[in-house]
Structures are given as C-alpha cells and as structure tokens.
Amino acid sequence: MSRPRKGLDAFVRILAAGTLLALAGCIVPSDGPLTNEVISSGADGKAYEIPQTKLIFDVVTIDQRIANSVNASPRASFAKTFGIGGGGGTPVIGVGDRLEVTIFEAGPDGLFSTAERKSTTIPVIVQPDGHGQIPYVGSVRFAGMTIDSARSTIVDALKAKAVEPDVIVAMADNASRTVSVQGDVNKSSIVPLGLNGLHISEVLAMAGGASKPPYDTYVSLKRAGRTRSVLLQSIIDNPRDDIYVKPEDQIYVSYDPQTFSALGQTEKSGKIAFNAAKLSLVEAAALAGGGNTATADPKGYFIFRYEEENVYRSVVGDDRFRDLISRGMAPDTEGRYPIVYRLDLAATQSYIVAQNFPVRNKDVIYLARHVATDFAKFMSIVSSGSSAAYNIQRTGRAF
C-alpha cells in the first residue's frame, strides 16, 4: 500500500476515534428528566444551590396514609369561605322595593275608612334616599327596616290622627334583594330573593340551570370583595356547599372541563379529559394508555400539582411544611403550594394505593424514561458514527 494511502487510513482512524470521543461527551437527547433527577430536584436535593433558579417543593412517595390524606382533605368550599348562613339573614326593606301599606280604622268616618270600607291600601316605592310617603304621616324612612318595624312606625305615627289604627305592610316587589346569575346557564337572570332565603342550587334553577354537565361546570360566587369557585358537582355532593345567597351576590357559571396532562413515556400524551366527576390515579393511567414498556421507568410515575395548604400539611406534617416555607416555598396566586407525588409501580401495593389517590383538575402526570433508554440512544448514535467512519475509511469519501 502506498504511503499516501497509509496516511489516509491513519487520518480516518484518528477521525473515527475523535468522533467517538465527541459523542461520548455529548448530551444524549432526552424526553424529560429521569426518575432520580425529579427526586433530586425536591427541596432536599442539590438542584437548588443556585438561588436564581430556586423553586422549593417537596417530592413525596405515595403510600396508603398519603392517599387517604389527600382523598379525605376538603377541597375549595363556599362554606369555608363565606359560611353557611341561614335563610339569607333577616330581610329588610331596601331602595326600589315596592310596598303595599294597608291602613285600617275602627270608625266609619276616619282618615282611611268610610261606611263602605274600613281600610285603604297605599302603594309605596322606596326612593333612592330610602324614604317613602304615607298620607297624614309624611316621609318615612323604610330602608333598613323590617316589615314589622315599618308597621310599628306607621301605627305610632297615626295613633293621634286616626281612629284606633292598625297597619299591614306587604312586600309587592322586592327589588333590593336580588342576585345576578350569568355565564353558562340556560337563562342569565337577575333573580329576586324575596323574603325567604334561597340556596345557590335554587338560584341556579331559577336561572334555568347550568347548560353543561355539573362535573365540568364551575360556580364562582363573588361577595363583599371575595371570590371563590367551586365545582357544581361538589355543591350537589356536599350540601354544606349549597349555601344561602345574599343580596348583591354575583354568581358566574363557567364551563371548564376537568383535564390532566399526560407527559413522558405514556402511550398517549397531551391534555386528557376526566369525563367524570372524580378520577383516581389508576383511572388516569388507563386513560393515558398505560406506559411504554420499552422505555418507561416503573419507579418514576409522578404527579405534579399545586396543593391546598391544609392538604400539604396533612401530607408532610406541620414541621416539614414550616421548614419548606422557611426555605422559600411560595404559593401560587390561589394560595396553593407546589408538590410532586411519586408512585413506584414496581411495588405491587402501588396498584391498590393508586385506586384511592385522586387526580385533580390541571394535574400534570409524568412517566419518566428508564435510564437504559439513554444508553441505548447513545449506543445507536455511536453505531451510526462508527458506520460513517468505516465508510470513509473503506471508500475514501464521506458520500
């Protein structure tokens, strides 16, 4: 073989060796973090030594106690935020109310009676200043009064003018006691509350009911500057959440299907709808088509979510929660804290535990790839690189 040819062979061997070294040092393309990378990214891992990238959360392996705690912990509640109330409180007269004031007298020739009639009915509309006019009484401030107190006020004012007067005050139109219902209902309405208290479910019924399934419909209640959203299904299932509404409450009904996102080595990825009121982790795994047996790591099934504070404390304990807060764990805009739950599918009991672990709306379910997958990818790249180097050596050209 000629010297130039030997020189080319030596160059090819050096090129091939350099290629392998470069491939060995490169980062193998991945499909998300490995199991140990997720675990080490928790509050006790080394991933948070750089303050600029710090996001504090805990990584918790699901067992029966944790599954029971999460499943039993109360979720967002109207009763917790606003109280249950009772009959909407004592009803009072307000601006815009239309009253019918009937005045009786004992004599046949009184101010409000004749030989034919012993009474006179006077319509009264409560004016913006809260007052209404009654003949021979003058201006009466009705706003803020109960029906009984309004009656007593008028009777006292007429005792020196009418013959043994008696008074009945009736509410003809209770315009001041209303609640607005908007959004995904069959008939957006201003619903009058009347003198009796109404529950949220009754007000929604008067607005034609929700137009979508209750397990995909949220009811938002705004009262005195505070707002809380609750799944309509929760109101149906938990009577305590079917609280009494109050005048000037605002109710907005919105259709927002419950979904979770499946990522990683699941057979199906993307946003997946519950299509049910509740969903367990086992059911969610089934909806995602299970795991890819060739690439998935059964020890790395993770649920990423923001959890309510009371649930977080129940899961990790008060001392651990305070420690996480002291280290910088912060809530989202709704006061919930980040947490990652881990399920080890290599353990037989996990399939039982997962039946009792609830998936929540907007959860992210991630199935990590097995570490051997990266090695297989690397060997595939190495094999491709070796073949290319061999072709160069054999033919003396890259193409």
From TrEMBL:
Record flagged with keyword Acetylation: no
What are the GO MF terms of this UniProt record? Answer: polysaccharide transmembrane transporter activity
Per UniProt, residues of the Polysaccharide export protein N-terminal domain are 92-171
Q: Which InterPro entries match?
A: Poly_export, Poly_export_N
Check the record and name the Pfam families matching this protein: Poly_export
Q: Does the keyword Signal apply?
A: yes
Q: Which UniProt keywords apply?
A: Signal
The cross-references to PROSITE patterns, in alphabetical order and at most eight, read:
PROKAR_LIPOPROTEIN (PS51257)
User: Which protein are we looking at?
Assistant: Polysaccharide export protein
